[in-house]
Design a protein that fits this description.
Layout: H1 2-15, E1 26-31, E2 34-40, E3 51-58, E4 61-67, E5 76-82, E6 91-98, E7 103-109
Antiparallel strand pairs: 1-2, 2-5, 3-4, 3-6, 6-7
């Protein structure tokens, strides 16, 4: 009986990440001090499974952060950050995290 319970728990734990996944790919566009982001994250119910957090860093320093309690649709989470002083050569890093499991990071260099 213990083995059956143990096997059931292991199977249940191993399957849970299959229903949750990291956002991605993440698209990042930078123009005129505005960073536009779309974190793709295909879900069936965006009120219970969604991109919960997007953080923007410029040259390693946090420049913006947004927390979400749902997605506007089943395909992903858009976000826009206005960041003063962005210039050519700056490295913009975008971090996106799922409400259930996983995260991803995308880096771009300002042209």
């Amino acid at each position: 009986m213990r083995i059956l319970v143990l096997v059931s728990v292991i199977v249940a734990l191993s399957l849970s990440p299959a229903y949750a996944h990291a956002p991605g790919p993440v698209s990042v566009k930078v123009a005129d001090g505005v960073v536009e982001i779309f974190a793709a994250h295909s879900v069936s119910d965006p009120t219970t499974h969604y991109v919960k957090l997007i953080i923007v860093r410029v040259n390693g320093e946090e420049a913006g952060k947004k927390e979400f309690s749902s997605q506007p649709g089943t395909d992903g989470q858009p976000a826009k950050f206005e960041i003063e002083g962005l210039k050519a050569g700056d490295e913009v890093e975008v971090y996106a995290a799922c409400s259930r499991f996983g995260d991803t990071t995308k880096k771009v260099t300002v042209e």
